[in-house]
Fold:
Amino acid sequence: MNSKQTFAAFCALATAAFAFAARATEFRSADTHNADDYPTVLAVKYMSTLLEQKSGGKHHIKVFNKQALGSEKETIDQVKIGALDFTRVNVGPMNNICPLTQVPTMPFLFNSIAHMRKVLDGPVGDEILKSCESAGFIGLAFYDSGARSIYAKKPIRTVADAKGLKIRVQQSDLWVALVGAMGANATPMPYGEVYTALKTGLIDAAENNIPSFDTAKHVEAVKIYSKTEHSMAPEILVMSKIVWDKLPPNEQAMIRAAAKESVPYERQKWDEQEAKSLASVKAQGAEIVEVDKKSFQAVMGPVYEKFMTTPEMKRLVKAVQDTK
Structure:
């Protein structure tokens, strides 16, 4: 090898080493959903692509789904101490850590998916995300998780139809209060036990979004899906403030922009998943029932009194209701 070839080889190695160094920042993000094509999993992977483009290849994100890094609570704890960079969780587990996240979990708060998206994309959503900073989290984005409704062996057209039913709920004080306000018997139960409980009659009903009704095969046990749409609680993507504070402002801005740009992508994937699951449950004989939402809203006062306890929370609830 002559001197020119040696120099060329050295330059190639130096370029490769520089390129490797420029790509050396691999952030880790957790997600509990099992499917690799679940909308939130795809959204953070898409965010990674955007971040690579914005940073010239310096930063990217590796997504660990299927609870590879732990449960939602465990990944939240890891993000808090800076052992993990990002996590995508349902907003519920953040409620006690970051109290304003309780606002979008409230029943019948949003009057449609479009209303929910407009609110969360606006100043109310930004204020809730920002409020997590004092707890050690950078709130980056809200993702869709659909609307939750009640499914049973009979239609639930008005709140009176829910009276006395044993309805499975998440293991949460808010969900127990929500179903109790309907006059039903809230039955907290792990998600994995719901199918058998519906099949055996241990419970009369459950509540969830259409994709869960479909993919968890609950449609095999009960066929009537009543569109109460009582909750549109979103998913939330948060980053460790410890990790964030070590980044220069221009890189923080890149991450924030990539997260925001991933939101419409996640919504598109969610809408596609929902349409696919709706067609699937209908093909399996499910009946989709429209309901009188006002009859349900009329009994939710005590739930709001119990959980919306601060002036900030009450102001944000009003701001949501005033958003047209």
